[in-house]
Amino acid sequence: YVALAVELPNQGDYKTTQIGDTPVIVTHGLDGEFHAMVNRCAHRGAKVCRENNGNTETLTCVYHQWAFDTSGDLIGVPFRRGLGGKGGYPKDFDMKDHGLQKLKVEVFGDCIFATFDHDMPNVETYFGPKMSDYHRRMFNRPVELLGYHRQFINSNWKLYADNTHDPYHASLLHLFHTTFGLYRASQICGTELDETGMHNCIHSKAGTDEDRIDAYKTADIRTYQEGFTLHDPSVLAGWPEFDDGDTLCIHVIFPNLVAQQIANTLATRQILTHGPDKFELIWTYFGYADDTPEQRAMRIKQINLIGPAGLISMEDGDVCEIVQNGIVRDGEKSSVVLMGGDSVTEFQDTTLTESGIRGFWRGYRKIMGF
Fold it and tell me: Whole domain around residue 24: which residue ranges?
C-alpha cells in the first residue's frame, strides 16, 4: 500500500513514500494513470523528489538536471550532444533505456498498491475473497481526504503488525475502549483470517454486552473504570456507519496496511520501515464525498480517539517500544501465543484469541524462507 487515490486528485500530483527501505514516488500522471517509480535518478542515484508531495509536469533531479515525465520516462538530459562539438553522450545513448525504475501499480477501493514483481497476481487475488469484501465494505463509494498524523515508533515494524493482528489485547490495554464500550471482548465480535493467515479482520458491535459486562466488573480488569466520565461526551456521538452494525472493524493486509473503522473514524495506517528498530506510522483520515457538514465535523472530532496522541491508540506505540526494549537482547527467546489454541483458524466468534498473530508469523516465516 502506497497511497489513497484521493491524495492525488489532479494530473501531475505526486507524493513520496517508500516500500521497505526503497524510496518511491507515486504520481497521478499527465496520462491520467497512477504510477509508482523508484525515487532514484537513473544517472547517479540521487533522489529525484525530496518533497513529501506536490504537483509538477516534470520530475527533475537536482544533481545533473536529468528530467523525467510523470510516468517515469526520461525526457531530458542537459548537454546530451555536448557543447561546441565537445563532450556529450555516445550516439547510441537511448533515453528510453534510462527512465526511473517502474513498479506494477493497481488501484483497489481507492487504495493504490505497488509492487516490484510485475508477475504478481492482482490485488483482489492477493487479498482473497473474504478480505476483498471487507475492503469493499469500507471503500464502498467515493471518499474525501480529511488529514494526516505521522509518528515514529522506536521498535521493529513487525511488533506493530503483531499488535494489529491481536484482538486479545484491545480491551485489556485500552482503558477508553473498555470503559466507554467501544470495544470489549464481551460484545458480539469476531476474528477472521484469509486462507493464508497473513491478512486479518477484527470486528465488534458496541452495546451488545449489557448482560455480560459483569465479566469485567468481577474480574477487576484495570481498563474497566465505572466511575470515569467524559467532560464532553459528544466525541462518542455519531451514527450507524454500516448496515452490518459493526462499530469497530480493523482490517489488516500484509505487510503494511491497516484499514480501520472505529465508531465513525475511518483511516488507513501505513507502516514505513526505518531499519530494524524504528518505523514510521502514517494515519490518513477520510470520510465519504457525500458526507453532510455535520458528519464531516463529527469524523474530525472523533480523530481525537486515535493517532499518536489519541485517547486509544497512543498505548499501542508505547507497548511496541516496551516490548522492543524487553526482547532486543534476547533474540533466541520465544513468546507465548496460545490464546485460543495453537492453530490458525480462519474464523472465530471471539476476540479472545491469538490466531491472527500465529497466522501473521507463519506467513512472514514462509515468505522469508525461515
Answer: 3-115
